[in-house]
Amino acid sequence: MLVGSFLSGYAFWLLLGLALLISEFFVPGVVAVFFGIGALAVGLLTLAGVIESLPVQLLWFALISLVALFGLRRHCTRWLKGMVGGQAQQDLDSAGLLDQRVTVLTDFVDGVGDVLLNGAKWDAEASEPLRAGDTAWVTGFSGIVLRVSSRPGSSRAQ
């Protein structure tokens, strides 16, 4: 009987809610937090005496959790994981790629070729013709593709 009253008591729901919120720090996926919100809400509703029986508590937990998950996840994902939009490209250069000197490995055909940077071959794009053996500078990047130019310092103008 003690286990049944604990499972339907507000303490269980509040502890479950806190555990789910804390678990989001260890296994991030922006999912557990919404079930934590549902558990905390049911715990507070149970504490206030609004709901009492375990089946009703489970129903409210499921409803609140799913509404929070599907209604708020898209908005909260950006907030919890962060965004990079609106930042200058210089701020995004945590790898230190911008303004690095590269050696052109292959002639650029239709603006696409290969370059050598720090001993590694990279795919690259350029808006000007570059030939194998030329020296170029990194002006930007998109994923793992470098944008290069024959003029140093042109990333400042972008």
Automatic annotation (TrEMBL):
It is found in: Membrane. Coiled coil: none annotated. Keywords: Membrane, Transmembrane, Transmembrane helix. It comes from the Bacteria. The keyword Membrane applies. It is a multi-pass membrane protein. Residues 96-148 form the NfeD-like C-terminal domain. The chain crosses the membrane at residues 6-23, 30-51, 57-73. This is NfeD family protein.
